[in-house]
Amino acid sequence: MMNELQGAGVALVTPFNADGTVDYGTLGRLIDFQIESGMDYLVSLGTTGETATLSQAERKQVWAFTSKHVNKRIPLVAGIGGNHTQEIVEQIKNFDVLDYVAILSVSPYYNKPTQEGIYQHYKAIAEASPLPIILYNVPGRTGSNMSPATTIRLAKDFKNIVATKEASGSFAQFSEILRDKPKDFLLISGDDPITLPMMAMGAAGIISVLGNAYPKKVSALAHLCREGNFDEARKIHLETLKIIDLCFVEGNPAGVKYILEKKGYGTDQVRLPLVPVSEKTKQAIEDEMSILA
């Protein structure tokens, strides 16, 4: 079992300077903030990292910087996914694994492949990857759902497919995966507001967006759930629901980047086609932050 993927992981934002370049100083401070606050592992360049708007050269620089700055203090996962299978295979083959323990790869988006197409996509990736693979099912972004049957088929056919990050929101789907999965295959929550119920069902943890700004709360919630202390976990679950909603009301990561700006971690700069949140949402975020502080 991938013990490194138990508990609380965070999908790191990519901080930008006012001119749109990557702000490595802030990224370094954000990494330290995560580690010091009890996060179990970090995901570099997932969806929250605005990876789709980074060049390949920028991605390599961010991965290298992250590995060097972390300096083996915490496990690292790299996000490498897309809808051009052969291109993803080549990226994975050429990935400098550095100190990364796994690759998170999103189910192909836009093309709307069949379940067989999704299976063959991940088969090609699994056969090429030097690292274990975490599947990532997020139908709200990809336009297609990876069925539990496809997830289980992949988990059983490829030993290096070790987990799935599930953001379908379907508890029926989660239940099927938990019922039919190989013993060591991990179900990971991909949605902050349902981490507690998913972990109560048997999920291994969360890959969180909120954790960027509130890592102590997210890591505490995940650790309490792992200990079976759901009464204390429920308190964190309920008190963070509104700030989680505000993180997503105008798109991710615009909301969480504004929270980070208010906490002194860079600016709320995002790359087009994303834009910063509205003044109305900024005020709502500030109001909720004053309650959570």
Automatic annotation (TrEMBL):
According to its UniProt record, the EC number is 4.3.3.7
Q: Which UniProt keywords apply?
A: Amino-acid biosynthesis, Cytoplasm, Diaminopimelate biosynthesis, Lyase, Lysine biosynthesis, Schiff base
The record's catalysed reaction(s) read: L-aspartate 4-semialdehyde + pyruvate = (2S,4S)-4-hydroxy-2,3,4,5-tetrahydrodipicolinate + H2O + H(+)
Which EC class heads this enzyme's classification? lyase
* Gene3D superfamilies documented for this protein: Aldolase class I (3.20.20.70)
Q: Where in the cell is it found?
A: Cytoplasm
Q: Where is this site: Part of a proton relay during catalysis?
A: 47, 110
One Pfam family named in its UniProt record? DHDPS
Pathway field of the UniProt record reads: Amino-acid biosynthesis; L-lysine biosynthesis via DAP pathway; (S)-tetrahydrodipicolinate from L-aspartate: step 3/4
Which InterPro entries does this chain map to?
A: Aldolase_TIM (IPR013785), DapA (IPR005263), DapA-like (IPR002220)
UniProt-annotated catalytic positions: 136, 165
- Residue sites binding pyruvate per the record: 48, 207
According to its UniProt record, which protein family does this protein belong to? Belongs to the DapA family.
Q: Which NCBIfam families match?
A: dapA (TIGR00674)
**Quaternary structure annotation from Swiss-Prot or TrEMBL:** Homotetramer; dimer of dimers.
Q: Could you tell me what this protein does?
A: Catalyzes the condensation of (S)-aspartate-beta-semialdehyde [(S)-ASA] and pyruvate to 4-hydroxy-tetrahydrodipicolinate (HTPA).
Protein name, please? 4-hydroxy-tetrahydrodipicolinate synthase
Gene from which this protein is expressed: dapA
